Amino acid sequence: MQLSLGLRAALLSVLLFVLFIAAWEAAVSGGGKAADLDPEYAKLMGATAVTGASAMPGPGEIGLKLWQHVTDPFYDNGPNDKGIGIQLGFSILRVLLGFGLAVILAIPLGFLIGMSPLVYKALDPYIQVLKPISPLAWMPLALYTIKDSNLSAIFVIFICSVWPMLLNTAFGVASVRREWLNVARTLEVGQLRTAIAVILPAAAPTIMTGVRISIGIAWLVIVAAEMLVGGTGIGYFVWNEWNNLSITNVIIAILAIGVIGMVLDQVLGWFARLVAYQE
Amino acid sequence: MFQDPFDPKARLGCSCGEHASQHDHDIAERQKLAADEEARDSRVVDAAIVRALFPQDATRRAFLQAVGAGTALAAINEFFPLAAAREAFAQGTGKPEKTDLKVGFIPITCATPIIMAHPMGFYSKHGLNVEVIKTAGWAVVRDKTLNKEYDAAHMLSPMPLAISLGAGSNPIPYTMPAVENINGQAITLAMKHKDKRDPKSWKGFKFAVPFDYSMHNYLLRYYLAEHGVDPDKDVQIRAVPPPEMVANLRAENLDGFLAPDPVNQRAVYDGVGFIHILSKEIWDGHPCCAFAASKEFVTTMPNTYRALLKGIIDATAFATKPENRKQIAEAIAPANYLNQPVTVVEQVLTGTFADGLGKVQKVPDRIDFAPFPWESFAVWILTQMKRWGQITGEIDYAGVAKEVFLATDAAKLMAEVGLTPPTATTKSFSVMGKAFDPAKPEEYISSFAIKRV
């Protein structure tokens, strides 16, 4: 009997995962002999120096640590030591704020650009120059002028996530089919009503694509921004564990960043399907 | 003298006859009383500071006898704004204007007094609720202090100077009330170089320092040049954030670094490097990091400032005692502060450490916490900045040094409270056996074979 495609894919996924973990475990557990050390001296040294353990943690070690984080995600031991749940919460909040501001600005402005070739041509050079600027380049300027590290991080997310939405909105609005607009004109529909009843639904799938790209960028940016300003958030968590050379925690943070990024993307993907239409 | 009572221009006298009226007399009396109180308060402040610096009576007396009280206070003035402290005291022992404070730090052992004052209760003892906040880098510490997210912060000792002088931004008057640590750095090399202990064999090496404008950079350059290795031509020196130093050493991307601890000890702990020499072997007693606050903070919140500084001075005095070092290591090692294994921090603070070559070394003064930031320290730093081309042209060495350590203000204030301003605010010292005369900086620079001027 042939198993369904979904089940076979799931089995293959599990197999790949097991192979990957096994290869990983084999790679880090091999080699390394215990060094011949004076016991007093050995007490002052770490495991990698004494037992010849690999500097790279194995999957077991990471699983154990991950379990600790998952079971106690919201502890708070002062400003520099908070659970991974709290750190992720701060990051998500910042992303949603910066991203929300970007949506508020980008969609109306994108509409304007898409509807008016004049505005499009006038603003295009600015957009082209501002679009490729890295978040890390904005950060010092933001810190210096805004004078608040939290607001600076939000600003950087805003400025980096605004462009894909703006361009996609403009593109979607500009490429609404002429016939539909002509029909609206024949029916003597007002400008505003045309925008809301004809252009918006027609451009919605393109706009949502831009929004989805933007949230991905915003989530990429937050880690870099928080590594730079410190304080709280998953980016700060990575930086802090990097200071401690704790590769285990860095890997766990990478996993967490990946999972949250996926969730954010899926949520917007669901929204995108809501507004999709079949011609 | 008898005045004509019928003269309309005659003035009414007072009881002592020196004032125009009884009212004026009362005002003068009150002023005199206040001045007396002020002088007494100044003495109280001075005594408290001297006691905090030299908690042991015998040491304090020996020191005061050796240099005289005036000179001692002058010296303390260098790194402790006595003026501001006295002013603060004069306003009474009022409650702090603000009890919730934020102090930023970089997670290295140089920040020990600032950090330990939190877990060990030195801040709360003085009625403050201080949050010590780990910060990602020197530039961020600077920005967050300038934009008032932090009330005070841990900085590299040249930073308050740069901010005061307006290097790179609008000048903002800064004070450097305490130097954090002396010594406490080291040159660490990758394990593969354990047979290359002679710096002459280091040509082609790649080195790292944490910051271009740091004692680390100047000490490494000095050390290399003394051994005939040109730090710009024969080797490469880059600025690398401390945690990346250990990773790069492991990846054989670096041959060595001169870094703050616990980075050096961490490299040993992880088995990727060994400690070639401690920075104290280059210059015993060199300054490194500082505790800094804006002048605005000092003047607008004198009570808070006094309490904060008391906490830091208290902690510094506690940290100078070797018997307390283990306890401090345990307090500052957790994730909330340095986020390092306790044994690494303990090895740095106690000076009993594995050197990476199989020996346990005992150097109790590997790091220390009661420094005197003499003006001559600043002059030395300036000579090295000029030597390596970081600054050019005519430099008013003594003037800049004075500006940093606010010695002019201090001298003025000392005279006001009846002390004799010091005639000398510098001391000589030697770096790698070569004596430094702060009065002749240009001659010092030209005496080096390897230089960029």
TrEMBL record, chain A:
<keyword id="KW-0472">Membrane</keyword>
<feature type="transmembrane region" description="Helical">
    <location>
        <begin position="217"/>
        <end position="239"/>
    </location>
</feature>
<keyword id="KW-1133">Transmembrane helix</keyword>
<dbReference type="GO" id="GO:0005886">
    <property type="term" value="C:plasma membrane"/>
</dbReference>
<keyword id="KW-0997">Cell inner membrane</keyword>
<comment type="function">
    <text>Probably part of an ABC transporter complex. Probably responsible for the translocation of the substrate across the membrane.</text>
</comment>
<keyword id="KW-0406">Ion transport</keyword>
<feature type="transmembrane region" description="Helical">
    <location>
        <begin position="92"/>
        <end position="114"/>
    </location>
</feature>
<dbReference type="InterPro" id="IPR005889">
    <property type="entry name" value="NtrB"/>
</dbReference>
<dbReference type="GO" id="GO:0006811">
    <property type="term" value="P:monoatomic ion transport"/>
</dbReference>
<dbReference type="GO" id="GO:0042918">
    <property type="term" value="P:alkanesulfonate transmembrane transport"/>
</dbReference>
<keyword id="KW-0812">Transmembrane</keyword>
<dbReference type="InterPro" id="IPR000515">
    <property type="entry name" value="MetI-like"/>
</dbReference>
<dbReference type="InterPro" id="IPR035906">
    <property type="entry name" value="MetI-like_sf"/>
</dbReference>
<feature type="transmembrane region" description="Helical">
    <location>
        <begin position="152"/>
        <end position="176"/>
    </location>
</feature>
<dbReference type="GO" id="GO:0015112">
    <property type="term" value="F:nitrate transmembrane transporter activity"/>
</dbReference>
<feature type="domain" description="ABC transmembrane type-1">
    <location>
        <begin position="88"/>
        <end position="268"/>
    </location>
</feature>
<comment type="similarity">
    <text>Belongs to the binding-protein-dependent transport system permease family.</text>
</comment>
<keyword id="KW-1003">Cell membrane</keyword>
<keyword id="KW-0813">Transport</keyword>
<feature type="transmembrane region" description="Helical">
    <location>
        <begin position="245"/>
        <end position="264"/>
    </location>
</feature>
<dbReference type="Pfam" id="PF00528">
    <property type="entry name" value="BPD_transp_1"/>
</dbReference>
UniProtKB/TrEMBL annotation, chain B:
<dbReference type="InterPro" id="IPR044527">
    <property type="entry name" value="NrtA/CpmA_ABC-bd_dom"/>
</dbReference>
<keyword id="KW-1003">Cell membrane</keyword>
<protein>
    <submittedName>
        <fullName>ABC transporter nitrate-binding protein</fullName>
    </submittedName>
</protein>
<keyword id="KW-0732">Signal</keyword>
<dbReference type="Pfam" id="PF13379">
    <property type="entry name" value="NMT1_2"/>
</dbReference>
<dbReference type="GO" id="GO:0012505">
    <property type="term" value="C:endomembrane system"/>
</dbReference>
<keyword id="KW-0472">Membrane</keyword>
<keyword id="KW-0813">Transport</keyword>
<keyword id="KW-0997">Cell inner membrane</keyword>
<comment type="similarity">
    <text>Belongs to the CmpA/NrtA family.</text>
</comment>
<dbReference type="InterPro" id="IPR006311">
    <property type="entry name" value="TAT_signal"/>
</dbReference>
